[in-house]
Amino acid sequence: PLGTHKIVFDIIEFEWAYIEQSTLLFALLFSWMALGLAFSLQEMRKNKIAYNKVRKRHRHLEKVNSTLRTQNYEFAELAHRDALTGAMNRHAVQSWLDQQARQVRWGHDSFSILYMDLDKFKRVNDKYGHQMGDDILREFVMVIASSILPEDRLVRWGGEEFVVFCPNTNIEQAVKKAELIRENVEKHLWVHGELLTCSIGVAQMQNERVSETMARADEVLYLAKRNGRNRIEVNYGMQKQSEVAIEVS
Dihedral of CA 124/127/132/134: which sign? Predict the structure, then answer.
């Protein structure tokens, strides 16, 4: 019949194998080293990711800084350059001219000015249009720049008028430089296919302001225009009482 059965155990015995102490210590040490290695590898991975992020950010910042430096340089250049021709503008040379004037006053240097413009340029504009005129002005700057020294300063003074400021240049050297420019302009093959010439007024700075030297150079530039164009006129100032014309054929 169904009922409740009762089982009684008198003895329970457990059996196991003993592990030697050295083996247990080795197993614990190995486990500790494995965990330590895994932790170190994980930390190295994290550090490598962080390092790569830092390097990437550093390269990005370098690129940004380089771009900014380039843009700042370009903006500074634009602020000191004539937008049409690429020649310097008046603002670009102001402080430099002040330095040159001091050198002349102290007797340490000679300084000359070439004041020039294209002959009958308005006729070119009227015949071919202002776009062609702009191209010719850019060519004019190119021809002048190829005829002067690196230390000279070529400045667009207004319209078709340009000035070359020549440090370490006396009046005789300035006249030779002006003649070289005049010849190169006359020989140049212009974009519109016709002959173009220029007139140049030359003056060396004496015991005066830059504006006074400029005025003397400007004066003889218009003298060159009145005397037939495609020529150089020189204002010797106090060196000679009269202006000396250099005939150019």
Answer: positive
